Structure formats: structure tokens, C-alpha cells
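User: Can you predict the 3D structure for this chain?
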Amino acid sequence: MTTTVAAYAAPAAKAPLERTTIERRAVREHDVLIDVKYAGICHSDIHQVREGWGEAIFPMVPGHEIAGVVSEVGPGVTRFAVGDTVGVGCMVDSCRECDNCRAGLEQYCTNGNVMTYNGIGRDGEPTYGGYSEKIVVDEGFVVRIPEGLALDEAAPLLCAGITTYSPLRHWQAGPGKKVAVVGMGGLGHMAVKLAHALGAEVTVLSQSLRKQEDGLRLGADHYYATSDETTFRKLAGTFDLIISTVSAPLDFGAYLSLLKTDGALVNVGAPEEPVSLNLFSVIGGRKTLAGSSIGGIRETQEMLDFCAAHGIGAEIEVIRADQVNEAYERVLASDVRYRFVIDAATI
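Assistant: Here is the predicted structure, written as C-alpha cells:
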């Protein structure tokens, strides 16, 4: 039997979110029913509600940074029990058979994974995200939130955390490596914390020095304003790895000039507009311009365990559900330090 739960949804593209009800499926053999406690607000939520990345499915219940407590498990569930603290990120299913899925890279499923919201499940039904009282997810796409991580601070780790952790690990950020983080927002502040904990020398590249004190407090060794015309001259050829967390188009030639030979500029922010590139920017210095998308389930669990071991959570502002539309506007105005988190008890 399905369960009716309260949620906040956008009824149409660009429409304000409003309180409504949705149906959650009955718990199947390998399903976990989760009482949502907190749901982070990601810039991706705004992109999709406003169809910035293309046509979307409405009504839409956003939210893919979900932290909660297991309240029921299916008869075949072996990984979780009632009362466990758990999380759900950007995916709730994949084909599980392609080479990428078998390698633990479900985020790159060649047959298409099922996103937590604005997706169509393998049962043909639309998926609804974490701005809701409860969610039902296959246990294979649920992760355990370790003791020591507060659920409200852990929720943003399910997207902002893994989105930055995955490229830092893949490009081997660590002792002896110089890492730059472009942008000090929801993603950027997590990249700073994680790169510092991994042992890298961390530099923040932000439009201004407005958040410099925060950046240094969170683990950055250096902080530069990209609006200062001398910054790019001073830092030319400095970095092994640059993580760009911004969703606005960059002057890629300028940022690629900051890399050492064989350095990589990795984009985890996704601008709505196409970008251009002069290929001489990568040919000179054998540089890499790359992208990275979240992480697989195994790596997401690794990230959570790493954060628990190092005392890392997101910097958050907890809000009531009825403040979500105001929060969206504040995200667009860069007026949050550094992640809004919805208290699901207020939905």
C-alpha cells in the first residue's frame, strides 16, 4: 500500500514551491523507508525547478541531500535496520549491469541511472526528492551516516561533499599537491575542507576577498581575488589541480594558465550556457580540462566515513520548509554560508 506524505513541490517550471502531498510506494523486498530529518538545498535544485538544464518533470519535489532515520525495511534488506541513520544522494537506482556500475561508478551508468528527483524510475513512475516527510529507496542506493556526524551537517555531504571528494581523490589531491578551489559556495567550502583534510596545500580563488576569513578558517592556506588583475600573473603555473565549483562560465584560458605541466582543471559546477575554449590553452603544458559528477555509492560511503574520522560537516543554515522560496533567492544572490538545510519536521 502506498503512503501519502507531505512535501514541497514546484507545480510548474519557474513556479514557487508549495506544500502538497505525494504518494510513496509500498516497501518492496529490498526497499528502505526513511523518515527524512533534513534535506539540503543544492543549486542543482534551482537549475532544475527553473528548467535551466532543459525540460523537466512537474510537479517536481527537489532534494538530493537527504539525511534521515530508517523506519521500515523490506524482508530482503540486509544492510540496514530500523533506527539506523542513513543518507540518500543524487541517485536512487542504476542498471547495475554495465561496466561502470560493476566498477562502483553508478553515477556514470551507461544505461542511465535514476535520479532522486526529476527522473523516471524503472517502474515508469516519476521520482520525488527529499523535500518531503519520507522517502522509499532500494537499499543498494542508501548509505550509512556514521556516528559523530550530525544529521543536519551531514545532509549536504550527499551531494556537495561527494561532488568535491570524488575528483579530489581521482586526481590524487594530498601531501605535496597544490590544489585551487574556484568559488567559496556550497560546493567550494566543502572542497576546501576536504582538500585540506587530504593534506593538500589549498588556495581559494574567489571573485572578491569577502569570504577570505571563512576560507582560511575552513582550511585554505591562501586566498586570492580573481577580480584583481594581478592574481593570474602571480599564480601562473602554480597548481597541480583546480576544482571549479561555480555554475557561471569561466575564462578557461585564464584558469588553465594557472596549472603546472600535466595539471588538471576539473569542473563540478555546471553552467547553463555553452562555453568556448582555445585549444592552445591545453596543448601548451599537456593540461587537462575535465569534468566530474558526484560519486558512486561505495565512494559516497567512503567519503562519509572520511568526514566522520576528520570531524567534517557542512557549514549550514537550517530553515523551515516554508522558507524554501526565499532560500532559493538567497542562493542566487550568494547570500548563504554555506548551505541551506530544510528541517523536515516543518514540512
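The chain is about 25% helix and 25% strand. The mean pLDDT is 96.
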